[in-house]
Write a structure and sequence with these properties.
Length: 415
């Protein structure tokens, strides 16, 4: 029998057993976990924001739908299509989930999609380091559909690693009749399966919600193997007028990694006759995110900043990985000490911790989906909102080059 490579490596001194022991007693901060080399990914968490929009035409579709209930359904459909990228793409690509790079404060991941939906721009920024939090803004230029959000993770250990996502996303859909729609989106909890076998992968748990200013709410229920359908990565969802959970307008069932079906009405009436749509990821290839070549990137852009680490991971040179990571970490520590001494804080490039208290979206829609008015700001370093003024400024500022770039790289990345 063939041994999966990751198991072979774990056995051959990868330290998997020691790693398992260490997680049994960890403090909930995932970034503090020291994982064995073979499980290290060269992708930083700032890149994960792109998973929200790997099908830009599905993302933008609600803008063209005049009926508010169907618009809410298209938003739910888009959300469900993102789950496969968000939670299964690493395992599908590498055979198992990996430990992403822990972003430094101010780390950026910028890109765009150019396809049938026109241009869709992605901005992702690490807005907090302690606790780690990533904020993002994605705008489709053609329709004006825009997603912004921020997230952090709180982990606990009970049989395996259990992760609660803290934060939320807000989707804005322009509508022909005045005010744009606002959709408040909560994030599912997850746990890691396959940990003891050295081949971790994600299963989603519990429920998540999308509730809209137009008066619709979607509830998504997640379940794994041995529960309900007995298939892994299962989901069911219902869309109903807010407050009337029994009044199901549409229901969805299937697997977030495979296909799911949308029917009108409650699930008990599902038949070929009321099938609205079947989503099959195999029939809907993802659109490619365009990222600037590394030497044209801002020095704080993720792939440029982590390049040496990424190259070393790819070559399996783990001493170099350690040395290069430590350079960034200690330069960052120094920078924080310096800022403190000078009484300043790191200026986020695209986001601002909202001083609006209460936050309008959260006051209006938060209670429907059990989100606090303050957006769990204490656990994410702030209630982060996209700052269009800062963004306009960033867009009109040329990327630092030459001495200016070298100074940043030295000061902030220790390279
Ligand atoms: C691989 C095991 C052993 C190490 C633990 C790695 C942890 C840090 C990884 C594994 C899966 C990861 C999650 C996978 C997907 C997402 C969705 C994204 O929108 C935000 C980040 C988030 C929520 C990741 C956070 C970090 C995470 C929980």
């Amino acid at each position: 029998m063939e041994t999966p490579p990751q198991q072979a490596q774990a056995g051959a001194g990868g330290g998997w057993g020691a790693f398992l022991k260490s997680i049994a007693s960890f403090n909930g901060d995932l970034s503090s976990l020291t994982a064995p080399p073979f499980i290290l990914s060269s992708t930083s968490l700032t890149e994960f924001s792109s998973y929200w929009c790997e099908h830009p035409s599905v993302f933008a579709a609600p803008a063209k739908e005049p009926d508010p209930a169907k618009r809410a359904l298209l938003v739910l459909k888009w959300f469900l299509t993102t789950l496969k990228q968000q939670y299964a793409s690493r395992s599908e690509q590498y055979g198992n989930e990996k430990k992403p790079l822990n972003p430094f404060l101010g780390e950026l991941f910028l890109g765009k999609w150019e396809d049938g939906a026109g241009t869709t721009e992605l901005i992702s920024e690490q807005v907090s380091h302690h606790p780690p939090a990533t904020a993002y803004n994605i705008t489709n230029a053609t329709t004006g559909v825009r997603l912004e959000g921020y997230n952090a993770q709180k982990a606990s250990f009970s049989k395996t690693i259990n992760v609660k996502q803290i934060g939320h996303a807000v989707l804005t859909v322009p509508s022909s009749s005045g005010e744009p729609d606002t959709y408040l989106i909560t994030l599912p909890s997850l746990h890691i399966e396959g940990l003891v076998f050295g081949s971790p992968f994600i299963e989603l748990d519990g429920s998540s919600y999308i509730t809209s200013s137009t008066g619709f709410t979607a509830k998504v229920d997640y379940s794994g193997k041995g529960w309900l359908s007995g298939k892994k990565n299962s989901l069911t969802a219902v869309l109903y007028p807010t407050g009337k959970e029994k009044d199901v307008l549409f229901n969805v069932s299937g697997q977030w990694t495979k296909t799911f079906e949308i029917h009108s009405g409650p699930a008990k009436h599902n038949s070929a006759g009321n099938l609205v749509e079947l989503w099959d990821p195999a029939q809907n290839p993802t659109s490619n995110l365009i990222v600037a070549p590394i030497d044209e990137q801002h020095p704080l852009e993720s792939r440029r900043a982590w390049n040496k680490v990424a190259v070393a991971i790819a070559k399996g040179e783990f001493d170099v990985v350690h040395v290069e990571k430590s350079k960034i970490e200690s330069a960052q520590r120094e920078m924080r000490i310096k800022e403190k001494a000078e009484g300043r804080t790191w200026e986020r490039r695209y986001f601002t911790a909202s001083a609006d208290s209460p936050d309008l979206v959260l006051t209006r829609l938060g209670p429907i989906v059990n989100l606090a008015e303050h957006g769990d700001a204490d656990k994410t370093g702030g209630l982060w909102r996209f700052d269009s003024q800062k963004s306009a400024q960033a867009h009109s500022t040329p990327v630092p080059t030459g001495d200016e770039a070298a100074k940043l790289v030295k000061e902030l990345l220790g390279q």
